[in-house]
């Protein structure tokens, strides 16, 4: 599996705030911060007191004195400003992510994913935060559902925020990646639950379907390395493998037949992380792609020239045309690493 930590930031003595910090990513990211660095404070900002209580049990204060818990909602700009005082870095992971729930509750999705993005930007500027990275999703590229559309709007807000920082100097960038192996809502634990329950078949939406795959730890490492590389306005996209959904099912249960159930509303046959229109502004690095912003200050030479080249004119990055594919052995290796992760 690819190691994304060739570029590692110096976070010793820094104060880092994680919105949505009680989620899978937030818990793994917080654990990695305290394992690898000596931060002054790691602030977990979320609205669910039960999840904060449960997370605090896993991170006892005597072993993790830098960890802080701050109840608040990204819809509340005033509360965000209070939480961000004297903060150096913000990682924005809070979002409403469930596709059917977003379709049924569109205003709630917009208030959290779009209005919340604006609130994070405004609070970060007011508090003179140095760097902000927002987590995005493959569904934001050519979106066909409200969740993807709301995250595309969020991405645009964070990228445009660089035009407003002026002498404050706050820099905003975006990280976009695909399915996390073993995360809540992923097809892997869903299949595993069916298999453990004695299912006679596995449901397949469409035998042609493909997906990108990344482990939670790789996602954390990718955000850390992007934090070190960012200059403001980029969308960072990891180079990760694809897998056919039928191959995934066969890797988990070789003897179970498949039942074709059809694609659900708002679901894509293949994932896209760089569209053909964005391909013209994309840089190709050994471990990632970077969609460049259309800013006057932007100069790609700042990354150096080792292994960096512009993508082809008609380049796009999609799960069905990917150069790297995951086989059954590779999937099992990923699952082995998932079992060793914190969450």
Fraction in beta strands: 15-25%
CATH top-level class of the domain at 15-178 and 214-239 and 272-318: Alpha Beta
Q: Would you give the CATH topology of the domain at 15-178 and 214-239 and 272-318?
A: Rossmann fold
Main sheet makeup: 10 strands, mixed
- Please give the alpha-carbon distance between the first and last residues: 20 Å
Spans of at least 5 consecutive residues with low confidence = none
Radius of gyration: 20 Å
Number of strands: 17
Second-tier CATH architecture of the domain at 15-178 and 214-239 and 272-318: 3-Layer(aba) Sandwich
**What would you give as the CATH superfamily of the domain at 15-178 and 214-239 and 272-318?**
NAD(P)-binding Rossmann-like Domain
Structure description:
The chain is of the alpha/beta class. The model has no long low-confidence stretch (mean pLDDT 91). The two termini are 20 Å apart. The longest helix is centred in the middle third of the chain and has 21 residues. A ten-stranded mixed β-sheet has the order 3-2-1-4-5-6-10-15-14-16, sandwiched between helices. Strands 7-9-11 form a three-stranded mixed β-sheet. Helix 3 runs parallel beside helix 5, helix 5 packs parallel to helix 6 and helix 9 packs across helix 11. The chain has a domain of 237 residues: NAD(P)-binding Rossmann-like Domain (Rossmann fold, 3-Layer(aba) Sandwich), CATH 3.40.50.
Throw out a few tags for this protein:
Rossmann fold, 35% helix, alpha/beta, ten-stranded mixed sheet, 343 residues
